[in-house]
Design a protein that fits this description.
The complex is a heterodimer. Chain A is an all-alpha fold. Chain A has 2 domains: 43 residues; 175 residues, Cytochrome Bc1 Complex, Chain D, domain 2, CATH 1.10.760.10. In chain A, helix 4 packs across helix 8 and helix 4 crosses helix 11. Chain B is mainly α. Chain B has a single domain, classed as Up-down Bundle (Cytochrome C Oxidase, Chain A), CATH 1.20.210. Helix content of chain B is 70%, strand content 1%. Chain B contains 17 helices and 2 strands. A two-stranded antiparallel ribbon of chain B has the order 1-2. In chain B, strand 1 and strand 2 form a beta hairpin. In chain B, 58% of the residues are buried. The chains are: A mainly alpha, B mainly alpha. At the A-B interface, helix 1, helix 2, helix 3, helix 4 and helix 5 of A face helix 2, helix 4, helix 5, strand 2 and helix 6 of B. The structure holds protoporphyrin IX containing FE (HEM) (2 copies). One protoporphyrin IX containing FE (HEM) sits at the interface of chains B and A.
Amino acid sequence: MSSNDHSNVKSHWHRRLLEGKSAIFAVAVTVGISVGGLVEIIPMYTVAAGPEQLQGVTPYTPLELAGRDIYVKEGCYNCHSQMVRPFRDETLRYGAWSRAGEYQFDRPFQLGSRRIGPDLHRVGKKYPDGWHWEHMKDPRSTSPGSIMPPYPWLYEKTYDVADVQASMTALQTLGVPYSDADISGAGQALKAQSDTIVANLASTGATAQGNEEVVALIAYLQRLGVDSRAALDARDGG
Amino acid sequence: MSVEPQTTAAAMSAVDYDDAIVKKFIFATLLFGVVGMLVGVILALQLAWWPANLGLEWTTFGRLRPLHTNAVIFAFTGNFIFAGVYYSIQRLLKTRLFNDVLSNIHFWGWQLIIVSAAVSLPMGWTQGKEYAELIWPIDLSIAVIWVVFAINFFGTIAVRKVKHLYVAIWFYMSMVITIAVLHIFNNLSMPATILRSYPIYAGMTDALVQWWYGHNAVGFLLTTPILGLMYYFLPKSVERPVFSYRLSIIHFWALIFLYIWAGPHHLLYSALPDWSQTLGMIFSVMLIAPSWGGMLNGLLTLRGAWDRLRTDPIVKFWVVAVTFYGMSTFEGPMMAIRAVNSLSHYTDWTIGHVHSGALGWVGMAAFAMIYWLVPRLWKTTIHSPAAVTLHFWIATIGIVLYVVAMWSSGITQGLMWRAIDDAGQLQYPIFMDTVLELMPFYAIRLIGGTMYLTGMLMACWNILMTVRGAPASAAAARPATAK
Ligand code: HEM
Ligand code: HEM
């Protein structure tokens, strides 16, 4: 006798209607698995209470965008979250809890699901540029006992202007408000912003050219949570 | 002893089943099981001892972790599922697979995708979304190969000789359909270069779509197809019919309907709208019922055959697998309750939960199926039954070490993060203080993981020896045994 047949079962309606008719069965499965997703995802676009827009949050500058792409590429999200939860201990440790509007230009989102290292959503301006320069090269130099890996290659590889422009063009197509002038002028914008970081680094005795990947990464890290901090601090009282 | 093939039960049929494709998928399962778990062990070492990052960009934790998850989910689990599905649907429908060419395109296409993942992820070419890291050209190939699989699967159903679709097939079908839907919608994006693209969703919407995908990738790759395989191979292994047909109907429909709603439990206390978080939590808690329906149907199929638990290692593997399934589907709903999630989220507790499902349920089910299947496919007996039993114990102890270490580590760190002293200040303001506390647990996890990998290697050896010792005639054309 087979252990896998149901010959002892009387013929029920579902047996006739579903389990013998593969097409109907497949349609029923498709409907069954669609309901939940539709109910949850569609309101993100249609209901007014969908993701709020937050005043003062602007798109990433070309340098920050290049830095963000490096953040994604290196998989920093595997160890770092970017979502401060509304608990007393988290606001004490990191700062104001995270609002939906702060993420409006984040593609892909980088909320993360692990905190092997600390949350980074409020790390902007927490440390001077020179700290990040040292930390990314040798995390243990600034943070004794750290288990974060060192990233020496970020000091040798450089970002590429045309590559950043390609990213901006793709994002523009998706509706991010970059103007054509922003894209064609990306080269100057990259230069101007990296010069400030190079100057900051020089004041701490570090020499950078400005086109290293780590400079872009620093620009991105220093911008995290800064846009919205003033508005949020005022609203939450710290 | 069901390690022996039951040639007597083989009522001969005229159908010439395609077993060559099943064998290929089994070899791929073994190969990528070793690779994926080896990378897991390396990750565990890196967390316990950072110099293991080697100072090379290709081997840092941030790049290897996606390699591990993609390898174990899509390569190890994927190939294991395809092997089991292709073996069982032919027997259940009494027909050869729809099209041999499609079967082979499916096999080689899938392996090519895996190889391209193994190259691209260490290079840092990624979409930056968990379990959906692969870049858009690879995503397109996945879509194509999945469609090939779907045509082959539904084609086989179309030409079937048995009208009624057995429970296992319902579960497989839910995987074929749902994974296609999830994969396509979560990966919709705008390419910037051949290596980089940006999702059409932004911010919290991207997060919601991603976790709708992420949770259901767990649901429809690591859960439903394996339940389907359980419904075929577990009754085979103990030679008893499934406990309850009615229960299987109810828990199937409830499971696939409820699963889809649960995604937001990955975003509790985030900026996702409250109503969405609440839905995610409620549906997750409800998921206990259909999950345990499956567990009970599996365990109760063993009623009257419990004596085999002592003698037959395959039954041992199944019992542990189904038990861990029950455990992780109890733990998951608990972790989806906001109060519990406030402690568990972001910590190693999640990692413990993941691996009690992954090592306990997925892995042990894979070994149970493979140890049952290989002697039958090659018409021989397993090379070393003793090594099967040893594998069972090494793996089981390994899982327990892994999971208990992660629970302890997760709860320890979660409590330290939230500890506030009398003055209202953080008791552990220095983050590293909460990390250094975890090092002993990371060492124990490393030991547990290494044991599990050792078991995997033993399985490879045992199966290669079995195949080598198989009678040559088995390779020649033969009418396959019917079920
Ligand atoms: C020898 C066996 C294994 C070892 C040593 C191992 C180790 C690890 C480690 C160290 C991590 C990173 C944890 C962290 O972020 O702190 C991880 C993550 C993960 N592993 Fe494994 N693993 C093994 C087998 C498996 C298997 C067989 C599967 C699935 C079938 C699996 C699925 C996952 C998943 C999904 C994650 C990501 C979890 C998350 O993001 O929360 N692992 N593993
Ligand atoms: C009823 C069933 C289940 C429910 C309700 C459930 C619920 C949960 C919850 C609440 C989390 C933590 C999310 C967070 O805080 O970030 C989680 C994580 C996870 N679970 Fe489950 N779980 C279930 C079964 C399973 C099973 C059987 C497996 C598989 C093998 C599994 C694999 C995972 C994975 C891989 C993650 C980590 C996701 C990530 O953060 O990367 N779950 N689950």
